[in-house]
């Protein structure tokens, strides 16, 4: 791993200490009903990693003991495939926490790859619990979405969005938040978030009678499956040059790792989900990993965030985070 990002920070006099621990993001499983080309988690139907029952209990205990952590962000894989997904959501909502579920839409139809049992109960469950739903829809046209996520994904996604709309998600005045996620199809930076959201809103309403609350633009991170694609196509170096050329100091100052802690299926802690996939876990002074089982927010606020060249993806253009553009 080179140090392009760190050198750019130093050149511009930017420091990135932690600011808070207000979001706990749990990657509770890498199992998924899809195997998308851009997936930085390398999730697929073949993956079996899952957070243990002890890990689930520890996460809920951390939320109960530390009220300053206001948000639980559940991701995967497809988080709904974890056997204790319902328990996690209900436990966090009972503690009055904001819960975000990163829902891939097609799991409503496909269910678990082993059983193929549809999960069409999910829209009603989300509405009952008052969770926020975040779902990937790489584009508002079928060709581009299926090119990134697989044949037939677009049509299933549209129908899943209609089901979410039917229980109030994305509809004005309901308070039920449905955010869509745009990833570029290929080695490109996202268009400005506001203008792209307007395009999505018009196209989905006119062509499919679908509504949503927000659009998040997220830069494809040059790690794992997407990096392999870039290297195989001879585009990796050019993509990194593009990210560096688009470095934005304001976006760098707002990187999500300053306010978030990521947790893997073994309970180990990371600065962000991308560091998690690269194995860059947080370490205590004795070299052992920080874990959810000995969670100490005060100690975490004294840490040095672990940086790498992949961080250029979060600081290019309008910035990129799990909540979309940061500038």
Question: Can I get a quick summary?
Answer:
The protein has helices at residues 4-12, 53-65, 85-94, 107-110, 122-129, 142-149, 153-166, 193-208, 224-232, 236-245, 249-253, 273-277, 297-301, 312-315, and strands at 23-27, 71-75, 98-102, 132-136, 178-182, 214-217, 260-263, 269-270.
- Span between N and C termini? 27 Å
Order of strands across the main sheet:
6-5-4-3-2-1-7-8
Helix content: 25-40%
Q: Please state the structural category.
A: alpha/beta
> Quick one: biggest sheet?
8 strands, mixed
Mean pLDDT over the full residue set: 93
Q: What's the total helix number?
A: 14
Q: Write down the overall geometry.
A: globular
Proportion of residues in extended strands: 5-15%
Could you characterize the architecture of this molecule?
With 327 residues, the protein is an alpha/beta fold. Helix content is 37%, strand content 11%. The chain contains 14 helices and eight strands. It has helices spanning 4-12, 53-65, 85-94, 107-110, 122-129, 142-149, 153-166, 193-208, 224-232, 236-245, 249-253, 273-277, 297-301, 312-315; strands at residues 23-27, 71-75, 98-102, 132-136, 178-182, 214-217, 260-263, 269-270. An eight-stranded mixed beta sheet has the order 6-5-4-3-2-1-7-8. The chain is globular, with a radius of gyration of 19 Å.
